[in-house]
Each structure stands twice: as C-alpha cells, then as structure tokens.
Amino acid sequence: MERRIGEIGEIGGEDAFRVVIAPDSFKGSISSVAAAEAIRAGVLRAAPDAGTTIVPMADGGEGTVDAVLAAVGGERLVVPVEGPLGGEVMAAWGLLADGRTAVIEMAAASGLPLVAPEARDPLAATTYGTGQLIRAALDRGATRLLIGLGGSATNDGGMGMAQALGVRFADADGRELAGRGCGALLERIASIDASGLDPRFAAAEVTVLSDVTNPLCGPDGASAVYGPQKGATPEAVERLDRGLAHYAERIAAATGRDVRDAPGAGAAGGLGAGLLAFGRAVVKPGIAVVTELAGFDRAVAGAALVITGEGRTDAQTAYGKVPAGVAAAARPHGVPVVCLSGGLGAGAETLYGHGIAALFSIANRPLALDEAMRDAEPLLAEAAENVVRLYRAAAGFGRSRR
C-alpha cells in the first residue's frame, strides 16, 4: 500500500512493515520523484505486503521545486527569463497551495547546466534571470520566498538579481553601469542606489536554502572555492574575489549591512550575499527546510526502515546533503536509514557517524557513467529489493533467536 506524504496513516496495524522512501534527485539522471518510485518498485518486489510512504527530498539544489510540490502540493509554473550568458531560458518555479509561498531554484535561471562547458565564464555570467524569476513569483502574489542556491554558473554576488528587482549600480562618475550585473562589473561599482528596489521583495519573507556556509570572499569564499568549477582561471579567481570584497564594501555603505563574512554569503557565487543585502533574508540548510515542509517527522513515525539516496555519496554528503539530513531527522524515531547511491566516493564511510546504517552503490556491474545514468531506475529498484530482502531476513533471524 502506497502513501504519499499528505496521506499518512496507520497501514495494516501496528505490526505492518512500512518503508519511508526519501531520496534526492540523481543529478543529471532522474528526479527525486522518479527515484522514489523506482525504490518503491523494488521494495514491493521484496515485500508485496509492505506499506510505503514516498517523501521526495531536496537540499535547495536541482529538483527542489519538484520535490516540494510532490510532497505538499501546489502549482508548477514556467516563465521565460534571461539565461546566465544572455538568451532566453524557460525556468520553472512552484507556488504552493497556500498561494503565498513560492519555491525557486536559482539554477533554473542561472545554473551551470545552462552553459556549455566550453562557454563557462563566471566573469560574464549574471543572476539577472534569477531576479526575473523572483519578480514572476511576486507578480503571482507570493509573500514568502524559498530560494534554493545550488548549481550556479555565476559569481556576481547577486548583482544581476538585484538589478532585475530595481537596484541601480553606478560608476565613479555617477553613471549607471551598462549591461547586466556580472563578476567583471563588481570592481567598477562606486555606489549603490536601492531606492528603486521592488517594495514587494523588500517586504517578503525570504528563506535562502543552502548547504553552503562559505563567506563571500577570501580563501574560503565563493570565488576561491567554487570559481574554478565554473570556468575561472587562477587570474579570474583573484579578480572575482577582489570584486566581491569591493562589492561588500559598497553594500555596507549603501545599506548598513555587513555581508562579507556572513555564513552562506558565498553560496551560488555570492547570490547569498545579494539576498542578505537587499532582502529580509535568512540562510537555512535546505534539507532542514524541505524535511519540515514535507512533514518528514510525521512520515517516519512508526516506520520500520527509511531508504534515501543520491547520485554520488562522499565526505561532502555529511555537510547538509539529503542523506545526512534524512538520517538526522530519522534519528529521534530510532528508524534505521539506508542510502542507495549512484557511486560511493572518498569519505563516504563518514556517513556512518551521521546516522546512516548502511551505504550501497546501485552499480551491480562495471558501468560507464552514461550507462549508469541511463539505467538509474532499474538499478535503484534492484538495490532496494536487495536491501529489503536482507532487512527482513535479518529481522526474522533476530526474532528466531529470542
């Protein structure tokens, strides 16, 4: 018997075997919803009498909109916005059933997957489209914005986003800087005029969903840590870092807000800093917000087992990624959590210290990456089936020994 998160209840009496299925998306392969359905199929092959509760998960990155909508309901909308290097892209966002809460992924408008590898340039990339996406949500009446910061192509500190919402940036001669806000323009900002900021954004409750706590600049900042994967050369990293430091000074002068060292300010190429500077924003771990929204506590109560998963599991998973967040939420209930991963990397075993009972790679034979991504659903189903068969056999063995 399957239960979606909004339909949780007693399933088959107190002795029923119920599995909560709460995976992340498998990046570049399948959504969290598709992953959950594949896992469910495997669970039911092993235990046709099992109850299943599907709770798609996300941490603020790819798949957050679809995961939250699947869990709590609402409307998925698609709007045209400007891409990170110009041109039009169609970006999806979600309006929850309350009519006032919008869920936005900055990557839908300004994400790295929108730029071909050979064209990646964080000096030129802009978050202007993310600002347009926010404006679309405001136009629909949203007063609460949940903004996921993951997978950005940008390093503009949210300058482009702020431009789209009415903030003006001027040079030393008092002339408004031409072009979209981007990493290359940061060092030229002499003054910031936020008087034209959309008042609806200024009044909105903004929650930044991020597993990143990096400051805006410095050796642990946005440019140094994430710039190279966006195409920045060592020289560009230095220029971008100087630009963000200068930008932080101009923000402090214009708004009185010191965002330079704020935890999470460096998320998404400094977009975290822009949201903190110009909005009523707080930064929270994305997985914590999603588990709360989805009612995960209610889902896991009384369950026998939780199965989570993600595309790749390594030491970084412990820092705010879905499997670690799911394990933390399940721990007070004493329910074991198993993680199914597309691949296990260095340090994956550290998850055992964060509440994960067992880790399994879904690859059941030597596989090329494209083959593993193509076959993710049947591989997940097979792995889930084996996990449940083992779990039930072990549980039966334990009972026979008492």
TrEMBL record:
One of its GO terms (biological process) is organic acid phosphorylation. It comes from the Bacteria. GO terms for molecular function: glycerate kinase activity. The keyword Ribonucleoprotein does not apply. Keywords: Kinase, Transferase. Belongs to the glycerate kinase type-1 family. This is Glycerate kinase.
